[in-house]
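Hi! If you just cloned this repository, the fastest way to understand the data is to look at a raw example. We've pasted two of them here, unedited. The first protein comes first, obviously.
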Amino acid sequence: MEMDELLAQDAVVPNLKAGSKKQLLQELSHKAATLTGIEERRIFDVLLERERLGTTGVGQGIAIPHGKIGELPRLHGLFARLAAPIDFDAIDDEPVDLIFLLLAPESAGADHLKALARISRLLRDQEFCRKLRGSDEADAIYALLTDPSMPGHE
């Protein structure tokens, strides 16, 4: 699955404001509800349940919250760059400012894992993350994330 199949152009939020992890998950759930047609509370509950298993703050200012929702027909991604970093209980205890939300159907076992791996590879590249942090425009961020020449697209 290519990144442009996972991430719609209107699924990029370049300057999201959130003061806490809970508020961030609420904001992401709200935006994801408009993109997927799934009830906001349902998405929020799935994300919260996943965070209870262990943080999705993977370090270096990055979080990849994710979950499975049976009613989804396909995988959905949502990328947000925060206006100001927040505490996300990340594994390195550093605040988070780049978030890639991934929602998958219950049946998307291997596809869900492949998408998580691709997102992780992409966001492990420090130079790539510097470019994401340096852009305030949703279109520019979307272009970076879906550019086949970027890391993680192999």
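Ok, and the second one:
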Amino acid sequence: MECQPSREAKDLKTRVPLKFEEYAAGITIGILGLITFANVVVRYLTNFSFAFTEEISIFLMVLVALLGGSSVMAKGGHLNIMFVVDRLSPERRRFVVCAAHALSVLMFALLAFYGGRMAWDEYRFEVTSPGLGLPTWIYTVWLPVLSLAICGRAVGAMIRAWRRKD
């Protein structure tokens, strides 16, 4: 059961289309590129720096990583040791793949829970960012939201792996 996301992505049927993550990640990368380009141009043309945009850039990079993780999870691209997995019988391989997805669900559910608690604490205590002075919960709230999205994608991949006949 080799993962080939480019081929599988065309035929993959999910309840929530994968285009959501793909478009959101593309837009986020575009914004990140524009911010970085503007910072470089302004820095070389003037003595002024957009250093305060670093916190936005870091947030956007984390956002892209979580969106990409959600997309890859839906495509069954989780990490595994193919040397070992390929040598298993189809029944055991299916069990191992489903167990890996279940552990991913557990890990991202914990990340959503604790990330949600952290965002709530930042909201409750009115924590602001050092560069722009924005409430930090604006950045942090996306961690539990996208972790739950990854959980959903992992559950869907687990169901598809369990139903698959090799």
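That's it. A detail worth noticing about the second one: Residues 16-163 form one domain.
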